Amino acid sequence: MKTSFSRYALYLLFFCLCCCAKEEEFPKGLKYPYLEIQQATADDTGIKVSASVKIQGTANVKEYGFMYHLISEKKQNEKRVQVTLTNKKLESVLSEGLVARGNFQIRAYAIVDDKTVYSPPVSAVSLISSRPAIMDFSPKEGPAFTEITITGSSFTTDPYRIEVYIGPIRLQVMAADFDKVVARVPDGKHFGSYPIRVVFNGQEGESEESFKVWGPELVSMSRYEGIPGDTVTLFGKHFSGGRWGPYARLNGLDFKVLSSTDTKLKMEVPFGKPEQFDTPYPVSLTAGEKSAASPFTFTIHSNFGAATATSPNMQYDYVASFEADGKGYFFDFNRVVSYSTTTGQWREESQFPGVPRNFPIWRRIGDKGYLIGGMDGNRYYGDVWEYDFRTATWLKKQSPSFSMYYVASFVLDGKIYFAGGTNSRSSYTLWQYNPQTEQFTELNRVPGYVSYGRAFTRNGKAFLLIQGNVMVYNQAADSWEVDSPFSATDSYALTIGDSEVYLLPLKEKAVLYHYQASTKTWEKAAFYPGCTTDYYYTLRFSGFATSNALYVGAFSSNSTSSCYNRLYPFEP
Question: Per the database record, which ranges form the IPT/TIG domain (predicted)?
């Protein structure tokens, strides 16, 4: 017992000595400050916290502040807010990285040399979620599938709870942390420059800078006009990179792509629809899901002139015609309709006194026109009528003993020749009609079948389009021989003056071909800008030629399309 009492006395003496000693005699015991949080209150601005320094300590403090983290998350994700010590007090409003209804652990801290001391922790439940803040991002532009690293604050470590947008584009979040998000640009139709937006817990943060999503940019063309078949080059940026394409279009019409790079597209000018000829349109380009329109226009030229005024309502789509005195005279079932190249006007000239009909021969010799044959339903005709186009009067002439319609015909030396079509005697025989004697003469056979529009004259010679060839007629020998090959023999023929021959095919895209006498070849001269045909349906062109131009069109009795029932002029 004596020993225990002695030991207690020694402890008491040591305590008294310590209490009476000076502070510098025990430097290690009072080196670090002692911190204590007095308040942690949540409101609509964040969490207001205050702490006091109970013991200052002897060491030099480098930094004071608060550290806090969501209790449900890892402690190493703590956020730090530096605070200035004022009158031994620390005060701040914690606003970054908050989650509504989240329980946060909060500690005050002080950094002394290489050591950090903390207050005992407290907790507070946040009433708000913090708005994400974007400090920077990299890269600043790129194509689809570019990965962007975004730095900032008030993000989350859960990539499924945070959303990233560039304008209307939602990105795929690849990785996330409180101060960094990595997101990938998807492939899609949108492109351009937009700020980046980060959305978390209903709060949104937006970058000051914009990210540029690459998409096609159309800068210029090698030419801004051309005809079908021409080669042109489109210049720009970002043509490649899409999952398909690039493709170029003009008002819904596809160019044929010959080759492409990221900055250049070599293309062939397409054949236009009626509304696409001779009208400037912007070029559009599609690369993957992205499309862009050019700031310039391109024009597909037809080389035809502007269409004439609409004709009177024609009763049939077959309208035979001839030219006289600068006017085209058209026979339409039971009447004659004319078009004046001088006034540009249509007018009805006369009514036909005979039985109304379709598909007749309708040719001019001198100052008279002659109508021969035709059909109406199941009735075929062979009667002959003479028409005085200056007085608009008719005279019936002597008729043959056979009927014919839809034949190919031409005029040589004041006589009308015809073959093919449907003939009650023979569709493979060449026939001659002499207006002076009113007689029909049967000549030799033709070398194949022909029909309406497949005949023309040039420099006093006659030609037929038969089985892929242009056949020339030897009038003296009454025989035929090949003049030149031409595959589209199902064509409509016109002669300007007496020497310039043009053919307009009826079962393909209507290219106007010009005969080159020196080489006996046919070259593209123009592209018919009116209504065209498909493989199964044949247009029946009608028209006439003057000494310096031709006028051609297609007529329809029931079409409301503006490309029917008018003529398109062509001047070489």
Answer: 132-212, 216-299
